[in-house]
Structure formats: structure tokens, C-alpha cells
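A.,

Following up on our hallway conversation. C-alpha cells first:
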């Protein structure tokens, strides 16, 4: 009965969309008489529910959670118990086939490498889409989701919840009003990783837990033997599945920088790190981005700006005037905007912005305030017609370009063996100063031993590989057989 009701709601909503409404207003259905119409609620499916996906779905409990999908049913057992009426799946494609006509919206919170395919398939089915950060695993995938969302007119949001917070709005409005003057440098850092990184590829364990579908977890990546080091959760440090500390946290920490300084594509980037291995993100990284002069839509000029990123416990130099004993780290990281008039500092997620001068951040309020949770603001956007929709705080039109910048920084780290500043053509998604003859070698194992009382390394490396081909593969992945993306819209 529930399935028939959901299908009926989908047909009704589709008909109303033709009249400029996505969801029938409660007043029309008699809500004022104490009746809550079924059409007041979205039918939402969650994919990748064991971790942040569960937190996201709990923030949407006012809606109908109709489908739950995860490759690891042991890790997700508590979620299944929490939403007992939702249908359970391991393969999102089967869920789309069976529930596609009754689903209004999809929440994606899998490992990074699977985000793009799951979200792209949802969008092409006309489903509103919420994707955890980082939006995608590659630059090309970010561009694709941005363009698909525009083509299909669906409501979208990335899961960088700080974008809905008051701090980001204060930062943007104060900088746009000229409060700290012209900004030519920003330093950012996170205290992550808090999961294993800097590891060589482990040997296969061979015993896949009964509740885990290893083939589906691998998804579009190259197959490898099972090892418990990969999942649950620790996948984030492995290049094939995650993007390390930079990919995990920069969508939170760099978002106010990207928005306030109206950044677009960087033109130059350079990365460095602790020992770089083929399989796993390094323990600590530094990335320098250079963005060209931009045309400002506000009061302040936007000249060329350098943005520096640090992770793995490395912090930038403390700014002049920073109170002695005050920790720069606020909720997992911080940003330091160096302006010609003042220095503005905020924590992770744009939280708790303050000025070195001690002044208050008073500026005209020009940005919309989000009065619900980040997730429920997306639900609100889903229920509005495409013609009259107020975008979320992190729609793919903004999250896509932001994520391109983030994962392009990952490329800079992985290409550091070229020993040069890399020049980036953002429009065409390519580095312009890597030649056909450039080769790199990457460490497979460090071969660390104590020999005659002295630490020694007998490093094994890959054979020389084409840096250009390696970069192109990182920008646009080649997927395992059976996994494909939709074509890039023109």
C-alpha cells in the first residue's frame, strides 16, 4: 500500500510541476483543518548511510525516508533500525530501477569516488540531489554535476554545512563592504587527517565480511583485494577512494574564501608534502594556489591573490597581532584573510570570525539567512518550482567550481615530483606546462630498516610514467568496466 501511495504522489507532483509547482501546498490539501497532505513531504532515498549519510537523513526526518542503500549492512544496521519503513538495498542502481518513480530526492554520502556516478544518475532521472563533500573525486566530475544540475533544473546542495552558517555571511558582507581592504593573501589549515594516511598498499586479507559487498564498494575504481584497512570510514586516505585531508576539509574551510573573494579558476598551483606514495595520501601537505585579478561585484577590489593550504598538523605563521596563547585552530582549522586595513580570522566552517584589530564585523546584511538546518534548506528548495526556486547555500553551481579548486590542489600534491609551479587552464581542465616528455616516479614502499644502528630507506618506485597522461587520468578518470558517466552537457 505504501508503495502505491508513493507512486501516486510522484504522478501528482509531476502534474503539478507543469503548473509551476513541485509540491502541492498544504493549504490546498486542507492542512489548515489539521490534515497534513502526503504531498507536503518529499520521498527521499539515502545512498551511503553508515556515516554522515545517517546524520543528514536524521536532519530530514520530517520527510518520507523511503529507500536506504549501503554496501555494508552491518555498518548500516542502526540506520535500518532507525528508519524501519524504508526499503533496503546494497546496489543503488537496483534502488533507482525499483523506486525511481516514487523518489523525489536523493542524499549521497558514499566514499568520494562513487559520488559522481550516483549523483549524475539521480539528476538525469530528474531527482533533487544532496551530495556530501567533497562533491566529487575529480575535476571533470565536478564540472559534469554542475552542468547536469543546470540542464535538469533540480535542487542541489553539497554537504558543506558551514555554508548555511552565520559566520560565512558575516565574512562575505564585511569583506564586500571594504572592511579589511584589499586581500592579496589567505592562509588556511586543518588539523586533519584523523584517519590513517601515509601508508603503503596492504596485502589482501581475502575474507570479505558477509554483510559487505566488496565489488560494489570498489565501484568504478580498479579492483583490489579486500583488506579491513579500507572500510568502513578509513577509505578517505586511500587515493582510489578518497582525497585525503585536503579533499575532506577544504570544502568546509576554503568555502568562505572562495565565496568572499569571488574566486574562479586558479591559474597557478604548487603542492608539496611528506613522503608521497602511490596508494595513500601523505601525512601532511602544503598547497599554494594563485588566482588572477577578478572583476568585483561589490565595493572592494579583487587583485591577484595567493591562497595557501596546510594540513597534517602544520599551521601557517601566526599573524602579527595574534594574542599570545590563543590557538588558531577553531573546530578543526582556520582561515586568515590578510587585508590592507585589517586581518580577519575564522574557524572551520567559517565559524566565529573576528578581527585582529578588535573591531566588530558590522556591515549591511545582503545575504539570505538560513533559519533551518543545512539539510532542511535543501528540502525547502526541492519543494519550490524551478522557476521560482531560491538556491541553497551550496548549490552545485557554486559547489562545483569550489570542488574543482579543491581536487585540483590534490593533483598538485600528486604531481610534485615535476618540481615546478603548474599552470592551470581551468576552462579546458588541463595543465599547460606539462610536456609529452615529462616523466615522474612515485614511491611504492619506503623500505625503512635499521641497519647497523642507522635508519635507512630502500625505496621502491614505479617505473617512469608519463606525467601528462597521469595528470589527465587524475582530471578525468577511466572507470572500471560496467561503470560510466552521462555525457557532459554542452
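Then the amino acids I'd put at each of the 490 positions:
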Amino acid at each position: 500500500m505504501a508503495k502505491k501511495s508513493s507512486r501516486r504522489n510522484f504522478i501528482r507532483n509531476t502534474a503539478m510541476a507543469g503548473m509551476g509547482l513541485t509540491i502541492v501546498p498544504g493549504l490546498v490539501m486542507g492542512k489548515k483543518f489539521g490534515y497534513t497532505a502526503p504531498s507536503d513531504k518529499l520521498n527521499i532515498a539515502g545512498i551511503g548511510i553508515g556515516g554522515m549519510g545517517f546524520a543528514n537523513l536524521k536532519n530530514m526526518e520530517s520527510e518520507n525516508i523511503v529507500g536506504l542503500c549501503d554496501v555494508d549492512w552491518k555498518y548500516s544496521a542502526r540506520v535500518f533500525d532507525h528508519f524501519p519503513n524504508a526499503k533496503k538495498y546494497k546496489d543503488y542502481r537496483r534502488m533507482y530501477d525499483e523506486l525511481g518513480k516514487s523518489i523525489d530526492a536523493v542524499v549521497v554520502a558514499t566514499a568520494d569516488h562513487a559520488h559522481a556516478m550516483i549523483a549524475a544518475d539521480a539528476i538525469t532521472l530528474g531527482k533533487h540531489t544532496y551530495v556530501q563533500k567533497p562533491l566529487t573525486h575529480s575535476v571533470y566530475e565536478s564540472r559534469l554535476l554542475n552542468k547536469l544540475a543546470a540542464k535538469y533544473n533540480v535542487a542541489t546542495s553539497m554537504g558543506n554545512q558551514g555554508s548555511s552558517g552565520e559566520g560565512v555571511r558575516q565574512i562575505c558582507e564585511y569583506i564586500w563592504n571594504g572592511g579589511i581592504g584589499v586581500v592579496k593573501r589567505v592562509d588556511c589549515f586543518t588539523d586533519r587527517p584523523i584517519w590513517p594516511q601515509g601508508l603503503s598498499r596492504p596485502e589482501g586479507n581475502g575474507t570479505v565480511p558477509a554483510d559487505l559487498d566488496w565489488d560494489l564498494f570498489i565501484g568504478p575504481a580498479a579492483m583490489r583485494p579486500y583488506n579491513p584497512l579500507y572500510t568502513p570510514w578509513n577509505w578517505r586516505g586511500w587515493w582510489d577512494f578518497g582525497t585525503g585531508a585536503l579533499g575532506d576539509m577544504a570544502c568546509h574551510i576554503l568555502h568562505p574564501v572562495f565565496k568572499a573573494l569571488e574566486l574562479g579558476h586558479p591559474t597557478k598551483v604548487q603542492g608539496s608534502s611528506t613522503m608521497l606514495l602511490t596508494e595513500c595520501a601523505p601525512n601532511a601537505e602544503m598547497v599554494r594556489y594563485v588566482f588572477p585579478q577578478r572583476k568585483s561585484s561589490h565595493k572592494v577590489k579583487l587583485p591577484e591573490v595567493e591562497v595557501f593550504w596546510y594540513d597534517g598538523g602544520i599551521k601557517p605563521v601566526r599573524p602579527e597581532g595574534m594574542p599570545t596563547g590563543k590557538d588558531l585552530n577553531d573546530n578543526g582549522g582556520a582561515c586568515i584573510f590578510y587585508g590592507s586595513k585589517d586581518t580577519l580570522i575564522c574557524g572551520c566552517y567559517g565559524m566565529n570570525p573576528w578581527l585582529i584589530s578588535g573591531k566588530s564585523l558590522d556591515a549591511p546584511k545582503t545575504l539570505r539567512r538560513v533559519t533551518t538546518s543545512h539539510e532542511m534548506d535543501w528540502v525547502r528548495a526541492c519543494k519550490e518550482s524551478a522557476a521560482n526556486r531560491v538556491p541553497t547555500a551550496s548549490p552545485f553551481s557554486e559547489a562545483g567550481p569550489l570542488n574543482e579548486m579543491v581536487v585540483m590542489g590534490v593533483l598538485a600534491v600528486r604531481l610534485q615530483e615535476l618540481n615546478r609551479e603548474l599552470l592551470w587552464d581551468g576552462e579546458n581542465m588541463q595543465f599547460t606546462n606539462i610536456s609529452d616528455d615529462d616523466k615522474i616516479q612515485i614511491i611504492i614502499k619506503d623500505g625503512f630498516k635499521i641497519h647497523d644502528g642507522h635508519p635507512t630507506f630502500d625505496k621502491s618506485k614505479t617505473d617512469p610514467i608519463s606525467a601528462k597522461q597521469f595528470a589527465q587520468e587524475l582530471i578525468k578518470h577511466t572507470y572500471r568496466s560496467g561503470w560510466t558517466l552521462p555525457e557532459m552537457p554542452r
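The first strand starts at residue 43 and ends at 47. Curious whether your intuition agrees with the design.

B.
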